[in-house]
Amino acid sequence: MSSFKRKNPAKTKAVSYPGTRVSPASSSTINVSTGISSLDDILGGGLPLSCSLVVAAPDLHSSYGELVQKYFIAEGLATGQRVYIVDNDPEGFVDDVMWFPKSTTPKKVDEKSGGSDEEEEGGAGGKVKIAWRYEQMKQFQTTVSTPSQTSENYCHIFDLTSRVPRAMVEDSRGSGKLKCLKPSSSLTHSAISTFFGDLENTLKEDSSLPVRICVPSLGSSLAWGDLSAQEILLFLNQLRRLLRKYPYACASTTLSPHLSVDQWGGPGWLQKVGWSADGFLSMAAFPADPALSSMFPSHHGMVRLYSLPSPNTLVSPSDRFSALRGLASSSSAFGGTGENNLAFKCTRKRLIFETLHLDLEGGVSERRTTAPSMATTEVSAASRTSHTHGGPGAKIDIQLEGAEEPSAFASEKAKTSTEPTIQTPEGKPKRPKKKVAFFSDRPDVYDF
């Protein structure tokens, strides 16, 4: 009997935090929800702890980037996690955070069929009357649905028409779960060191709960002053370094609109931001381009992915487990073989990320008319063109209907055409059917 025995490594049990979920890619990675189920799918199941997410919203007349941060804060308050807000007016920002629907308790709400906030007409008993052969077909979906496990405290559905209760905010502040931090007016090296030193001291206080660090508008002139591209990149790198040191924390940041364009920080500015963060995506709204607004009337903007978080793995979990991106084989219901185009829309009650599909051919607003009248197709005899085919002498004369016919072809057509004119009961002559005539002396010529 051999004296060698295989040593089984001890199974390490992942730390269980409230409102978290183990990543499907690695058992050593813990995810927190962003509050938007479709965004969690794009990230590969959620935002991993010890990682940072940056959102760029270049539209000056919208606040989609800040809306993502409000979802991030609302999910942290709903799950009882610690939330740190870095803003010039953090108290006012928290008061505008959305909350659960007023008519329901904090529970899961299904987001099937694109997550529309309108209730189905006719109630549960109202069945849509369609052809019987289509009843067994799977319904076409453009986004993912919220998990049906109501017992799991992960990824709640919030209502944009509701606001977080004031008592909830006061209780979170009193217990230390909600802290409001104000940034320095400048991000010099000394100011950055001081800011992150204070933030690190705050993170050391308690490690029993996950920490969400939220920066709603990084680089805004009102809160941060006049910043350079180097200072922005230094802040993002220092933030990611701090998250690696304290793996129970994560961060979500939105760039100010004037920083979200590629021309601001020089060539390749957005790519540099993507290298300084674990995850980076851009939400470009359509109002900046009226042509896109008319082409995609059911969406509000495009989503572009620059980088995705991939802790403890060489490949991002989003490549394998994201149904909306369409790279995994199990996501055939959301598109073809390649990666899908992504867009977002904001309804009256929620923000949704979904795949981008063209509407019916020509668009829903296309105006179909009859063929143009003969008066608009009349051309002069000089505009007729001759096309040469084969050797010399072989040509085709094309004449539009209604134009004057050459005399030579008129005589030849009169000889070959023997069909009489048919009189209708109303006494109006009926136009004979069009036919192709072949000429023996010119076999290559066709008269239409």
UniProtKB/TrEMBL annotation:
<dbReference type="InterPro" id="IPR008728">
    <property type="entry name" value="Elongator_complex_protein_4"/>
</dbReference>
<feature type="region of interest" description="Disordered">
    <location>
        <begin position="105"/>
        <end position="125"/>
    </location>
</feature>
<feature type="region of interest" description="Disordered">
    <location>
        <begin position="369"/>
        <end position="436"/>
    </location>
</feature>
<feature type="compositionally biased region" description="Basic residues">
    <location>
        <begin position="1"/>
        <end position="10"/>
    </location>
</feature>
<keyword id="KW-0539">Nucleus</keyword>
<dbReference type="GO" id="GO:0008023">
    <property type="term" value="C:transcription elongation factor complex"/>
</dbReference>
<protein>
    <recommendedName>
        <fullName>Elongator complex protein 4</fullName>
    </recommendedName>
</protein>
<keyword id="KW-0819">tRNA processing</keyword>
<comment type="pathway">
    <text>tRNA modification; 5-methoxycarbonylmethyl-2-thiouridine-tRNA biosynthesis.</text>
</comment>
<comment type="similarity">
    <text>Belongs to the ELP4 family.</text>
</comment>
<dbReference type="Pfam" id="PF05625">
    <property type="entry name" value="PAXNEB"/>
</dbReference>
<feature type="region of interest" description="Disordered">
    <location>
        <begin position="1"/>
        <end position="28"/>
    </location>
</feature>
<dbReference type="GO" id="GO:0005737">
    <property type="term" value="C:cytoplasm"/>
</dbReference>
<dbReference type="GO" id="GO:0033588">
    <property type="term" value="C:elongator holoenzyme complex"/>
</dbReference>
<dbReference type="GO" id="GO:0002098">
    <property type="term" value="P:tRNA wobble uridine modification"/>
</dbReference>
<keyword id="KW-0963">Cytoplasm</keyword>
<dbReference type="InterPro" id="IPR027417">
    <property type="entry name" value="P-loop_NTPase"/>
</dbReference>
<feature type="compositionally biased region" description="Polar residues">
    <location>
        <begin position="370"/>
        <end position="385"/>
    </location>
</feature>
